[in-house]
Amino acid sequence: QEQLEESGGGLVQPGRSLTLSCATSGFLFDRSRMSWFRQAPQKERELVAQISAEGLEITYADAVKGRFTISRDNAKSTLFLHMSGLKPEDTAVYSCRAEEPMGRFGTLEYWGRGTQVTVSS
User: Fold this and answer.
1) 29 FRET partner, CA 20 to 30 A, in 4, 5, 62, 121?
2) 10 Å Cβ neighbour count for 94?
3) pLDDT tens for residues 57-69?
């Protein structure tokens, strides 16, 4: 059974840093592209950052470039998101997603349940 569990969220003051983790099991993590998404209240879910299976290709949303860093530890099947210079507009539920390649059958997606990040003074 595929499992993704986010942790590390919480309440933090503007300008501070926070690191999220996504611990996974039950699928081929080291072959999967991994992503962080976020959804703020009454807003659509948006892609925050994405990292290829080998960690060589990384993309960020414009809103977080230069402040957030996505990384992965394939030996531990864990994804990370280091967030610095946090702003109130970063407040959202952050979720991780895995895209496991299934060859000619395409890809399968797996999602975590999310962790709340609140940026407020």
Assistant:
1) 62
2) 23
3) 999 999 999 999 9
